[in-house]
Amino acid sequence: MTIKLPEHFRERMKELLASEYDEFEASYGRPAQAGLRLNPLKTGKPGQADKIAPAWREQPVPWCPTGYYLPEGARPGKHPHYHAGIYFIQEPSAMAPVELLDVKPGDRVLDLCAAPGGKSTQIAGKLAGSGLLVSNDNHPDRAKALLKNIELAGVRNAVVLNETPERLSGRFAGFFDKILVDAPCSGEGMFRKDPDMLRAYDAYGVDRCSAMQRSILAEAVKMLKPGGTLVYSTCTFSAEENEGVIAELLKDRPELETVEAPLRHLFAPGRPEWLGEGGAGSLADSLRRTVRLWPHRIRGEGHYAAVIRKHPDAADSEPSRAPREDRSLPAPTRSEWSAAEETLRECVNAPIEKDRRWATFGGLLTLVPEGLPSLEGLRVVRPGWAVGSFKKGRFAPSHALALGIAAEDAIRSVDFGADHPYTIRYLKGETLETGADELKLSPGAGPKGFVLVTADGFPLGWAKWQDGYLKNEYPPAWRWTP
Ligand SMILES: C[S@@+](CC[C@H](N)C(=O)[O-])C[C@H]1O[C@@H](n2cnc3c(N)ncnc32)[C@H](O)[C@@H]1O
C-alpha cells in the first residue's frame, strides 16, 4: 500500500523528526493496525469473553487490558456478536486516552467530544454501572450515532447531549471528577486508516484546528472539580495542536498542572522544543510529561495525550446556574407508570427500581442517572437509559432495555447461537417459526409475549412469540446489512 502524504506535512515532519523521519515515513507502507476492545459490561463474567473468536483475542494491546490487535482480514463488524455490543472496533492507540484518565466506578465523567462513542463506551465499561457519564458531541447527526453506540454497549448510567462546550460549562461548572477532551483535529494520525482524512487535511488545517481546540479546552477545565483529572487527546502530530494547546492552557493558571501519565513508559514524551523559540518557556518540563504515540514506535496509528490535574485547593469554579426543578424531564403519570410496570414485569425478572428517578422524554420512559443536575434548556439526545416507549396508551420494551440486561434477566428468552442461520435472519428483521419448547421460560411464565433473542447467551433484541412464530421486534435502523 502506498500513501501519498501531503507535501507540507512531509516537509514539516522531516524537519521535526530529523533522523527518525525515514522510519516514520516507512510506517505508512505498512497496513493500518486494527483493534477490538471487549465491553466489560457484557464480558465481565467468567467464560463470557471465551465465546468471542479466539483469533481476535490473541494479541493484547499493552496499554489497554481489554484491547486486542486484530489479525489481518478479520471482520468483527460482520459477526452477530458485534450486534450484541460485546466488543467495539477501535484503533489501538485510540484506546490510550481513557486508560490515562483512570476512571473509577462512582466517578462523574464528561466526554466532551464523544461521537461516535469509542471512548465513551470504554469509559462506561470502567464505571461498571456506577457514577455518571455525560457524553456530548456538538454535531447533531454524530450525537445520534453516539447514542446508538451507548445503547449497543448496554450502558445504563449515561446521558447523551448535543451541546456546545460554552453552554455546558455554564451548567456543569466544577461538577466532574474526570473529563475527556478527545478534540477534533487535523487527523495526521489517520492517514493510513482513513484515506478521506488525507482529502480533508487541507480543509481542516492545523491553525484552524488549534484555535478550536484551545477554546474547547478552556471551557472544559471550568467543568472540572478541584482535585479532578482531565485528559486532552488528539490523533494528530503537529505540535501546534498538541503541546501548543496545553502550553496555552497552563499559561497563567497555577491551579492546573500536567501529571506523569500512568503508562508513560510505553510511550514517547511530549516535544516542547517543537514549539520554537520561547514557545514552551518555563512549561517545558510540564509538556515533556505529556505523551506521544508514534506509528513507527508502537503498534498503532498515533495519538497525543496530556493528563492534567486541577489542584485540590483551586478556587471553586463559578457555581452552576442550573434551575432546581428539571421541568424538561417530567416524571411518568400514574397511568403511564402502571402501563410500564405491567409490561416490564412481563419481560424482565429483575426488580424495577421504583425509588430511582424515572422520567418521560419524547415518548420514552427513561431511568435518569443519579446525581444528574437539571438539563433544562440544553439539547438532550437521551437523558438516561430508555427502557421502553409509550404508544397509544400501551407500553413496549425498548431495544436499549434488551441490550442493557443479561439473558437471565428475561422472563422469556431463546438462544440460537451465533452460527445458527436464525440469528442472521433475526438481525435482518424476519419472522421466525419457533416452537414453544425452544423458549426458555421463567417459572410460571407462558410462552406468549416478549422474548429476548440471544446469541451465545448475549442479548440481541426482542421478539414477540405467538402461535409458533417469533414476530420480529429488531429495530429497522439497526438491521443486518450484507
Ligand atoms: C476525534 S472526534 C471524537 C472521537 C470520539 N472521542 C471517539 O472515541 O469515538 C472529535 C469529535 O468532536 C466533535 N466536535 C467538534 N467540535 C466540537 C465542539 N466544539 N464541541 C463538542 N464536540 C465537538 C466532532 O463532531 C467529533 O465527533
Number of helices: 15
Could you say what the CATH architecture of the largest domain is? Answer: 3-Layer(aba) Sandwich
CATH homologous superfamily title of the largest domain: Vaccinia Virus protein VP39
- Helix share bin: 25-40%
Supply Rg.
24 Å
Would you tell me which CATH topology of the largest domain applies? Rossmann fold
Largest sheet: 10 strands, mixed
- The shape is globular
Beta strand %: 15-25%
What is the rounded distance between the termini? 26 Å
Q: Number of DSSP strands?
A: 24
| CATH level 1 name of the largest domain | Alpha Beta
Mean pLDDT: 93
Number of domains: 3
pLDDT under 50 segments (min length 5)?
Answer: none
Q: Structural class, please?
A: alpha+beta
Bound molecules: S-adenosylmethionine
Protein name: RsmB/NOP family class I SAM-dependent RNA methyltransferase
EC number: 2.1.1.-
Domain SAM-dependent MTase RsmB/NOP-type: 24-311
GO molecular function, one term: methyltransferase activity
